[in-house]
């Protein structure tokens, strides 16, 4: 599921953004990826959002 909004999915979608935080691979849906593009590109942990 999406690590931010928790939207469910059958599995990681190809269009989802994968972000590795603290060694843990997390996926973010299209909407969250766009909303947090700057944070992801800045390699900030989701805790900063
Ligand atoms: Zn999401």
Summed up:
The chain is of the alpha+beta class. It has helices spanning 30-35, 37-41, and strands at 17-21, 24-28.
Describe the protein.
It is a single chain. The chain is of the alpha+beta class. The chain has one domain. 22% of the residues lie in helices and 20% in strands. The protein contains two helices and two strands. The protein has helices spanning 30-35, 37-41; strands at residues 17-21, 24-28. It has a two-stranded antiparallel sheet. The longest helix has 6 residues, at 30-35. The model has no long low-confidence stretch (mean pLDDT 77). The structure holds zinc ion. Zinc ion binds at residues 2, 4-5, 7, 28-29, 31-32.
Features:
2 helices; 49 residues; binds zinc ion
- Class based on secondary structure composition and strand pairing: alpha+beta
Please tally the β strands and state the result. 2
Compute the CA-based radius of gyration.
10 Å
Listing every helix as H and every strand as E from the N terminus to the C terminus, the arrangement reads EEHH
Question: Which small-molecule species are bound to the chains here?
Answer: zinc ion
Shape: globular
State the helical fraction: 10-25%
What order do the helices and strands come in, and which of them pair?
Blueprint: E1 17-21, E2 24-28, H1 30-35, H2 37-41
Antiparallel strand pairs: 1-2
């Amino acid at each position: 599921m999406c690590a931010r909004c928790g939207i469910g999915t059958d599995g990681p979608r190809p269009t989802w953004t994968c972000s590795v935080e603290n060694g843990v691979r997390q996926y973010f849906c299209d909407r969250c990826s766009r909303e947090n593009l700057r944070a992801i590109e800045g390699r900030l942990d989701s805790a900063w959002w």
